[in-house]
Amino acid sequence: MTRETVEARVRAAVEAHAEEAFALLEQLVAIDSTNPDFPGIDRAAALGGEGRCTALLGRRYGELGLRCETVASDPERPNLVAVLEGSGGGRSLILNGHVDTVPPVRRETWAMADPWTPERRDGRLYGLGATDMKSGVTAAWLAVRALREAGVALAGDLLVQCVVGEEQMQHTLGTSAVLDAGFDGRRPASGGDAEPAVGAIVLEPSSSPRPLSLSTTSAGNWVFRVTVRGRATHAGNRASAIRAGGEGAALGVNAVEKGLLLVRALLELEQEWGQTRSHPAFAPGFFAINPGSFHADAGTPSPAYLADRAEFDVLAWYPPDADPEAVRGELEQHLQVAAELDPWLRVNPPAVEWLGNWPPASTAWEEPHVQALARAHERVTGDAVAAPSAANPSGFPAVTDASFLEAAGIPTVVYGPGDLRRAHAADEHVALAEIVTCAAAVALAAIDFCGLAGDDAAAGAEGAR
Ligand SMILES: [Zn+2]
Predict the structure, then answer these.
(1) Which stretches make up the Peptidase M20 dimerisation domain (predicted)?
(2) How far, in Å, from the CA of 90 to the mean position of ligand 1?
(3) Would you call 280 exposed, middle or buried from its count of C-beta atoms within 10 A (0-12, 13-18, 19+)?
(4) Ligand 1 centre from 321 Cα, in Å?
């Protein structure tokens, strides 16, 4: 069988089983797999959803004859690895996707009956996780389904990682745990001696700015919490607390205003970053500072008091080539300087708590599996894939487990159905056609990169026998 015949069979099988994949996506969306450690979530109630997803996927990969392994650093949050063993001598490809979701944005803003009751309309599927990223998890399954249906025997291993915890950067429970357990593509299931080359595809939603963009770069981010104190008093004392001739701060200080002062200072720094921070993989002005939550009160949420405590959480994006510690220092210093300009904050400085640093990711465009995927995308869609450049910024505008695959030395590209503009939003949805296109491209990339069994030039040969 020629390579062309194999590819044609695979593409036909993707089309033939698309409806089965959409049904799997509906089943996945119907499982509430909200990350149990997300802020504001009832942990006990949310626990178990991720495991129901990986159990379902385990059954579906088992039906296809894959060896299914569970990796569970936390027994209540099991990851699944499904291994399609190669015949030996080829390169290993990892397909990675997370099964957890964020909690839905405010329920009453959804037009749907329920975020966990999937609805199909106009070629789209609506529901929580439809874009981020149960459609990517589904596309990986459809790619494997088609390879099996077409009777393709790969030379290298194909490892599908369905992981937990991504939405809270819990990679030590998810992706890093799976890699540490040995599912890193470097120990060929076929038992060969040589350590094979490895590449990974993270199937996070990459359909902006163009449908199914290939993204080899993502920005880093810092998440931090700022807490400011005030002095509580009756709202009737406000004038005396703030007007000339009154009792001033000795009587009351409203922490709402002190917190807002610091938020404004950060937004000024954001303006400066918009002018001064750049990276060729990102559109000008990308590196922004998002205050995402703000709470203040005097222990009781009522305007009858001057609030004595304000707390706000911020996410700051920084360029892939920036030093994270230097970025942290700059943010901290900026807050300090802003506090120095205010008589109350000068003596009651804000407390800054650093909640997390999600490291950036960057893989060379020339990596063989990135090139294999670009060629496959072109063959499936007819659209040429341009290398990233300043004129064609292709940085992924969010963070993914690519950072942790790369930390383990595995070059990684982000490519998956769904549009990040629809993620973490009401009426989250995905265009179903993107799942089919993605699955076909990923399957062809696997053939190209892992090679076919019995293929002389197994790894990545173009135009084989
Ligand atoms: Zn995601």
Answers:
(1) 220-339
(2) 29
(3) middle
(4) 22
Q: Which CATH number is 220-358's, of 3.30.160.20, 2.60.40.2550, 3.40.50.280, 3.30.70.360?
A: 3.30.70.360
Identify whether the C-beta of residue 443 lies closer than 8 Å to the C-beta of residue 147: yes
The rounded Å distance from CA 401 to ligand 1 centre is 9
- Following DSSP, what letter does each residue of 415-449 receive, concatenated? --SS-GGGTTSTT-EEEHHHHHHHHHHHHHHHHHH
The residues spanned by each domain of the chain are 3-218+360-450, 220-358
- Find the 167 Cα to ligand 1 centroid distance in Å: 7
The pLDDT tens digits of the residues spanning 1-50 come to 788 999 999 999 999 999 999 999 999 999 999 999 999 999 999 999 99
Interhelix angle 324-340/255-276, rounded to 10 degrees, is: 130
Report the separation in Å between the CA atom of 133 and the middle of ligand 1, taken as the mean of its atom positions.
Answer: 5
Angle separating helix axes 432-450 and 3-16, nearest 10 degrees: 150
Residue 292 burial (CB count, 10 A): 10
CA distances to 123, 289, 331, 332 from 223, rounded to whole Å, are 36, 10, 11, 12
Q: Would the CA dihedral through 59, 64, 65, 67 be positive or negative?
A: negative
